[in-house]
Amino acid sequence: MSTAGTFSRHQTQFFAWELTRRANADTVESLGSTLVDAQVDLNPHQVEAALFACRNPFSRGVILADEVGLGKTIEAGLVLAQLWAERKRRVLIIVPANLRKQWHQELKDKFALDGQILESKGYNQQKRDGVANPFDSAGPVICSYQFAKARIDDLRQVPWDIVVFDEAHRLRNVYKPGNVIANTLKDGLQPVPAKVLLTATPLQNSLLELFGLVSVIDERVFGDLDSFRRQFARIHQPETLQALRRRIAPLCKRTLRKQVAHSISYTNRIPIVQEFTPGDDEQRLRALVADYLRRPDLKALPNSQRQLISLVLWKLLASSTHAIGGALGTMAARLERLLADTPEPADLSDAMGQDFEALDEATEDDGDGQPDAEAPLNANEREAIANEIAELRGYERLAKRIRDNAKGEALLTALDRAFQELERLGAPRKALIFTESRRTQDYLLSLLAETDYGHRIVLFNGSNNGPDAQRIYRDWLKRHAGSDRITGSKTADTRAALVEHFRDNGTVMIATEAGAEGINLQFCSLVINYDLPWNPQRVEQRIGRCHRYGQRFDVVVVNFIDRSNDADRRVYQLLEQKFQLFSGVFGASDEVLGAIGSGVDFERRIAEIYQRCRDPATIRDGFEQLQLDLAAEINEAMVRTRDILLEHFDEQVLERVRDDSIETRDRFEHLFLDLTRAELNGHATFDTDNGFTLHSLPSPTLAGQVPLGRYKLPRRSEDTHLYRLAHPLGEYLLAQAKSRVLTAAHLVFDYDAYPKRISTLEPWRGSRGTLVAELLTVSSLAGREQRLMAAAITEDGRLLTDNDPEKLLRLPVSSQTALDVAPEPPPALASDLEQRRNQLAQRINERNLGYFQQEVEKLDAWADDLKVGLEQEIKELDRQIKEVHRTATVAATLDEKLHWQKQQRELEQRRGRMRRELFDRQDEIEGKRNDLIADLEMQLGQQAETHRLFIVEWELTG
């Protein structure tokens, strides 16, 4: 808890510098302000990973390879928040398209970083509005891999401070020239000084994948591809394995679930399968539409979009008759406009995307394919289009006649079954139902409206603009008026309002794919996949809304199986058995998620099976081949090698980090609140729960930025304003305290007013003397580090040792008196200060020398790798020369002998050139190495600057 006494201006200045100084990146203290500001309870492995990423000033980046479910996004968020606090704010985050919104929401909610999602439509609109480079933004920029690759020229122009690659295994084949996206991003972002690669599967099929990922970060870790192959081909030999471990240890960190099982409590998934059989009309509609989609020539689907739109139509066909009927009507209307020579929409996907929201993401992952140019229609084409329109309208009418779907009726049964299971678990009676179609969402709303759930249903979709959603939004605004819950973004605030309404008043939430992104529904423990996505990553994302850290109950997952549809049953078996999505503690394994890349291509493979396979046998064969292909993507030996290579099991380290991070966060919080209490004297009323009510502003410059009302620190926010160091009020008070020019004073510290016992200060009770506080700034390694130093002495010449002077400054003061003349530090006190400075400089120097030595060893290994490659080529030529020489010796004819001797001379000449090249390359490599080391040595030099904050006379009472 925070102290309740009074603090002097001298103390608040000391506190302010302690809260904002640049600390050594080796310590949890360097993350102190970030730990205070983060709106999340951090686990020790996450703090350790963030420290690992920030530790070495020479490092050009890291691979964070924790197993699935351990919070790599949080680790990267800590790193980004720390850089943001250091004013390094050119941040680029490249992620799979389906994770863009989730990243945006996580950064905003947990770290108060308000990023911008860039996608094709918004980007092009900014360009039309005259924005030269939309990437040149004031906040973090989030985009997809495809989008980044397509806009690499604009990306190059921004001097990024850091780039984060999520699901970075997409880059692991960068060593292959044919991997265009990976190579484009690697080359275009090569100058970025810091890269963070997040992936649970940095190594799956070949050691060369690890070489590829490391080369994205730093090309001077290993030599070239050939030398890497030669050195580490025998990876199963212990000495080779250990050599590789040493090489990658400084830039690759992996935490396993078993390491954190004792500190993180995860619940299980309980699967329920609900079978159903469609009625005769439903099966007839499905058969007719399936035959239609399998035709080689369809006027309704532009060639450039056929594959993508067909995939959507197969999914809508399995969703509901309402969904497929609406889609068929949209297609018929497009053809009618075409036949009437009426301008049509630029893109069929725009119209289809109104219902199937995931289409936008699939289009983004697919690149920016342009619609087909329409040529004038001839008579035969007009007749064919008219016939197709009539056919589509016929299917549409059949779909509209089918009001009741067997799958919908099965939903009522599934809800009863699942709620009984929740009752057994003691979990709240809440259900999250996912569908891929807005039209199906409307159908389910009408279906459930007639049941007991009717008045407790919440709809969640990409627009959230229905009358109920807007009413919930308006009520939410009134309820939270004056609090930081309201962001000002109607989209974000509507989403928050719907989630809160579901939590407090709802029983069922019916969500489209928008509900799988960026919201926390851990108060719900029932997920119903009314429509089952074919992309395992999407399934995992859905279940992850509920099955996440902080969930108290096992999560029930319900899936539907159409008994009459062999392909649908095979999809479920694949996701349930191969991907293990629906049971266990963590869901899908690292290997299978890593093997499918974006998941979009995987969905297309399934769509191809639906497209070409008509009978159970061919459907079975198609899915078996898909599973074989998937298995081929996972090299079990490499998976085991990865775990051995990257496993860093040290429970003591994590326990120490846990203790240090909790202690540091608590200390920083107390300092911040004590500073705030002293600086807001008369402007606020403080309570005993780490909160305060602001009655008036300390400066008119804060008007419009800082609302009056109740404030609390993160993680204890309730319905108040969140108070952070990065809050405008916090920043103002910190700057005010740091910039104040202080005069000397006599401070009387009250030992009894401090709530805790400080045993080392007890001998000094009743003493008085002189205290000096300084700020030491050390610049080295192209960075800056700041240390606060305090030294104190008694009137009778006894020095306070260790950190007792800092402890003294933490005590409240009972009185303070200005001094006309500043006291002169006694010689013993000046000597103690000098000794403290020297000890600090020595510690910094020793640490930096360690970093320097690590970098030199890396450069030495890189240089040796390149030499090894050349030497191996010469050895291979030696072998060939000997072989040719033996052949020439036993040649049967003069012509043969001359032929082989000529070949031998050519090989010897080539060997001579190679030897000369070896010497030249060795000189070149050595020159580069020496230049790099000289550059490092320049950075290693220290420049220290001492700034005296204040000198006071002190007295300790109590």
TrEMBL record:
Q: Give one GO term, molecular function aspect.
A: helicase activity
UniProt KW Zinc keyword = no
What lineage is this protein's organism placed in?
Bacteria, Pseudomonadati, Pseudomonadota, Gammaproteobacteria, Chromatiales
Q: Keywords on this record?
A: ATP-binding, Helicase, Hydrolase, Nucleotide-binding
User: Which CDD domains is this protein grouped with?
Assistant: DEXDc_RapA, SF2_C_SNF
Q: Name one Pfam family in it.
A: Helicase_C
Q: Which residues form the Helicase C-terminal domain?
A: 414-593
Specify the protein name. Answer: DEAD/DEAH box helicase
Q: Where is the Helicase ATP-binding domain?
A: 53-220
Gene3D superfamilies attached to this UniProt entry: P-loop containing nucleotide triphosphate hydrolases, Tandem AAA-ATPase domain
Q: Which domain of life is it from?
A: Bacteria
Q: Which PROSITE patterns does the record cross-reference, listed alphabetically?
A: HELICASE_ATP_BIND_1, HELICASE_CTER
Q: InterPro entries per the record?
A: DEXDc_RapA (IPR057342), Helicase_ATP-bd (IPR014001), Helicase_C-like (IPR001650), P-loop_NTPase (IPR027417), SNF2-like_sf (IPR038718), SNF2/RAD54-like_C (IPR049730), SNF2_N (IPR000330)
